[in-house]
Amino acid sequence: MIKDRIREDMKAAMRAHDAAGLSTIRLLLAAIKQREVDEQIEADDALILSVIAKMVKQRQDSVQQYLAGDRQDLADKESVEIKVLEAYLPKGLSDEEIAAVIDAAVAEVGATGMAAMGKVMAIVKPKVTGRADMGKVSALVKAKLTA
User: Fold this and answer.
1) Residues 57, 93: Cα–Cα separation, whole Å
2) Secondary structure, 3-state, the chain
3) Which residue of 3, 74, 115, 120 shows the fewest CB atoms closer than 10 Å?
4) CA-to-CA distance for 115 and 127, rounded, in angstroms?
5) What are the sequence ranges of the domains in the chain?
6) Any idea which fold 2-87 has?
7) Which Gene3D superfamilies does this UniProt record tie to the protein (predicted)?
8) Nearest to 101, CA basis, from 67, 72, 137
9) pLDDT score recorded for residue 110
10) Rounded Cα–Cα distance for residues 61 and 52 (Å)
């Protein structure tokens, strides 16, 4: 499980006196624990990947804001956190792989128009979460259904 790997990495960061890595891993574990408490469930790998993907997205947005505000020091800190978090995400999907997943979902649902967008996304989302930007995936699904 990813959670066990995260805990082991936390111990390794403590031993190595890696303050930045340790801080990021602790934030990640806290976010996972928060989701577990809020939803009253035990986090599985899919939930953990979605938490990690959300944290990466938040930090990417922060980096853009810091760079726009000419705060390179804060942008660098966020970039380090992104690298630590991305180590737990599976390899990203290529555009062709995303298109194949979308095509399979459209065929499975028998979608012919935008009315089936929700059904298609319900099938696509679990397959690409943490491996692709959901905004991009949504745009590709929309383009496929309107074509």
Assistant:
1) 16
2) CHHHHHHHHHHHHHHCCCHHHHHHHHHHHHHHHHHHHHHCCCCCHHHHHHHHHHHHHHHHHHHHHHHHCCCHHHHHHHHHHHHHHHCCCCCCCCHHHHHHHHHHHHHHHCCCCHHHHHHHHHHHHHHHCCCCCHHHHHHHHHHHHHC
3) 115
4) 21
5) 2-87, 95-146
6) Hypothetical Protein Yqey; Chain: A; domain1 (1.10.1510)
7) 1.10.10.410, Uncharacterised protein YqeY/AIM41 PF09424, N-terminal domain (1.10.1510.10)
8) 137
9) 85
10) 14
Asked whether 106 and 124 are in contact (CB, 8 A), the reply is: no
Residue at 33: amino acid letter: K
CA distance 85 to 20: 11
Structure tokens at 83: 């690298």
- pTM equals 0.74
